[in-house]
Design goal:
Blueprint lengths: L6 E3 L9 E13 L5 E13 L3 E5 L6 H8 L7 E6 L2 E2 L8 E3 L11 H5 L1 H6 L7 H10 L15 H13 L5 E5 L7 H18 L2 E5 L3 H7 L2 E5 L6 E6 L14 H16 L5
Parallel strand pairs: 4-9, 4-10, 7-8, 8-9
Antiparallel strand pairs: 1-11, 2-3, 2-5, 5-6, 10-11
Helix pairs in contact: 7-8
Length: 273
């Protein structure tokens, strides 16, 4: 494998030098029902730059989702601190969009009303955001489906609605917790391309969790590889593949080399055999 194809570092890339999110010595311990302490994360340091697309991969139970919830302020750190735009996160952080593996659509609301749910939850006038909601739905190919109910949509269409909901208030940051994990292979590839198009246009900061190595390589500027629990940053890999990207990049030597490197790390950790 050519050495110049892969770059790894424990520091920051040029893009992350202007950090929007700073994770400094963060650890998280949960207490089980039996009183036993479970260390989910330990000594985690990471900087995510403005406009960076950063993916986190790691074995199940390594604290990926926990880290996302800590960044969002939905959980409190046990140790260390998280700063967004220089301010310490001490509670729920609202200036972000959150997309989950499950679309979490409400079946009794129309597609349009599901997108506008953010307004209702925040006590905002949804009428002021209806135009943007319709524009977002059009941008993901759902024009004409505004009055449909979620049960009338395919899995991929439902996830597009969920993505529109996360983007409704135009947040500078998007947290995504395996949003395409439940989709079939073809729909997943289309959703990846749709997400890349959106990111290319808006340059939002994206923190993306996935179990798919190839998905992480295709989407990301950098990939954070985490160890098994207690989760730590094992290695950070720069994805030096030109943008914009399309699916043909998966056939390139550069793409294959990075996929191989991540797999090798998991083999070294005993995660895959």
């Amino acid at each position: 494998m050519p050495a110049d194809i892969i770059q790894t570092s424990a520091s920051t890339s040029s893009k992350s030098a202007d950090a929007l999110i700073e994770i400094d010595g963060v650890g998280k311990t949960f207490t089980g029902q039996d009183g036993e302490n479970i260390i989910a994360l330990e000594d985690t340091d990471l900087k995510i730059g403005r406009g960076e697309f950063l993916s986190i991969v790691g074995p199940s139970g390594c604290g990926k989702s926990t880290l996302l919830n800590l960044v969002a302020g939905l959980l409190e750190t046990t140790r260390g601190e998280i700063r967004i735009d220089g301010e310490q996160v001490n509670g729920p952080y609202t200036d972000l969009g959150f997309a989950f593996q499950s679309d979490l659509l409400l079946d009794w609301r129309t597609v349009l009303r599901n997108v506008l749910l953010q307004c209702d939850m925040r006590g905002m006038d949804s009428k002021q955001h209806t135009g943007r909601a319709r524009k977002l739905l059009k941008s993901v190919g759902l024009e004409g489906f505004e009055d449909k109910r979620p049960f009338e949509l395919s899995g991929g269409m439902r996830q597009r609605v969920a993505l529109c909901r996360a983007l409704l208030l135009d947040p500078p940051m998007l947290l995504m917790d395996e949003p395409f994990g439940a989709l079939d292979a073809l729909t997943r590839e289309q959703m990846q391309s749709d997400l890349l198009d959106m990111w290319q246009e808006t340059q939002k900061t994206v923190l993306f969790i996935t179990h798919s190595i190839s998905e992480a390589v295709y989407l990301s500027d950098r990939i954070v590889v985490m160890s098994a629990r207690p989760g730590k940053v094992r290695e950070i890999i720069d994805v030096d593949i030109d943008r914009p990207r399309d699916l043909s990049v998966r056939d390139s030597a550069e793409f294959g080399a990075i996929v191989h490197r991540v797999r090798l790390l998991f083999q070294e950790m005993g995660v895959i055999h």
